[in-house]
Amino acid sequence: MKSVPTPLLSVRHLVKQYRATGGLLSRPAPLLAVSDVSFDLAYGESLGLVGESGSGKTTLARLILRLTEATAGSVRFDGIDVLDLDARSLRALRRRIQIVFQDPFGSLNPRMSVGAAVREPIEVHNIARGAAAVEKVTQLFQEVGLDPSYVDRYPHELSGGQRQRVGIARALSVEPDLLVLDEPVSALDVSVQAQVLNLLLDLRERRGLTYLFIAHDLAVVRHIAQRIIVMYAGRFVETAPAAQAYSEPLHPYTRSLLSAVPVPDPRGQRQRIVLKGDMPDPRHTPAGCVFHPRCPHLKKDDRCRTEVPLLREAAEGRKVACHWFEEPMTVPQSQAARHVN
Amino acid sequence: MSETLLRLSRNRRWRYGIALLTVLGALAALAPLLAPYDPTAQLGLARQLLPPSAAHPFGTDIFGRDVLSRVIYGARISFVIALSAVLLSVIIGTSVGVAAGYGGRLLDGALMRTVDAALAVPRVLLLLLVLALWERVGVASLIIILGSTSWFGVSRIVRAEVLSVRERGYMEAAKSLGVGQRRILSHHLLPNITSPIIIAATLGMGQIVLIEAGLSFLGLGIQEPTASLGRMMQAGSALLVNAPWTSIFPGAIIVLTVIGFSLVGDGFRDTLDPRTA
To answer: Taking CB atoms and an 8 Å limit, are B170 and A106 in contact across chains?
Structure first.
């Protein structure tokens, strides 16, 4: 028997279309940044959202936070219709959904000490005032592994990793339920990335947080996400439990992404799939499968060029948007080929 | 902040400018203590148009008034007018600039087209027009006239800066944290647009000093017997050959003041604005 708990976050048919202004001579073409995506996020779950730059990951995050307005669709957070909230209720909701930004320098006000930056939301939301607020800032600094004596420093005096810890402390200051992590480590050195990822894992456990973790790199997400959504050109192309997405990716795009992840074992060579070309211009997305111009799949045919593949159930808890996912993608190599039945 | 001061103090132009302005500012501020004579007192027929001497280091003018005392008081008025007018223009210019940059496309268009129109009219012409409508020009009205006709450039600079700062990550971060609109403006936007305002204000000071002197020279600014540098130069221009001290000293003070503000403004620009440095 499978129980269906109410999800913390429920996104349905979300669309974001930008009205692209055309040039003097070119006709304005609408730009579809996020195209009809739906997903649920359970309490305490950790969901990874993966895709290359421009795939619409950040736009999706900003839609959920209402930092930008959706064109169509719905976002429900704990039963609340997020897209329908007025300014006042929206500010209240901000306490429950927080975001850690990609750029640890740009997301901190250079004229504000980092202690003041963490303290601001505490006071704005009346969580604590005066000495109690200062005390809370100290606790948060300790929790994210920053020396509390740093409260009077300014962002430019801190390293990238330290600044990102400040960003995390600031997001936690309002005690959110859902933390959206928009590529929180991609601006950091590899050694620092691991530290910050470990911190995020600790925090999730300690605080029972729900994560929506965005990354362009599968290697980063695998440590933190239980489930993974792969995005391409504003669409979901595959969703799968993290372990399976790694062991047997179904969509050709996921496979190529995964083939870019280095394997620690020198004998365990993975077959490299190098994609040609770039992501399609979002104003002129190709007909049929958006991925078809770059798809290396053996079976690619006219159907791929004309018929949009739906995101359909491929296995228990897995969905994939590919006409040919059952078929082997490339000529089987002795050890690299994986058949999915 | 102390780091900025350190960098400023390493800037030679800024250092010289500040030194110059400190001296001139002290003269202006301490005028009642420093001026040897009452600037409007006519010291008698025997002391008319005396060349510089120990008793009158800058000589006396045609009415027998001490030129040094008048220069000191004239500098005082120039400083008061420049400071107040610039303050006024910065307040108006910043408000308009922030409103245009942050208030949406329609407001932006309306405000900036108005500014364009105002900038298309030569400033002196605008001033002559306004002054022609004014009955009697005192210091206060001159400040209002100068201040309310010199904010156009400031508003443009501020608007450009707002448009850039608006898109920075910390603005969105503040919004996503539920910080209110007003607090975002006062705590996140304004502190990050101060540099161009400081630069514009400093350079604006020199301009106002010049314009005020020019208007007084034309007889439209400060009226006699109040000491004013422009007015003194105008009176002295007729005596340039016979009594050059009556116009050279006020002229020198104007030049030094303007140089001082230009040096400090350039220094600010070099250190505060990395794009033009």
So the answer is: yes
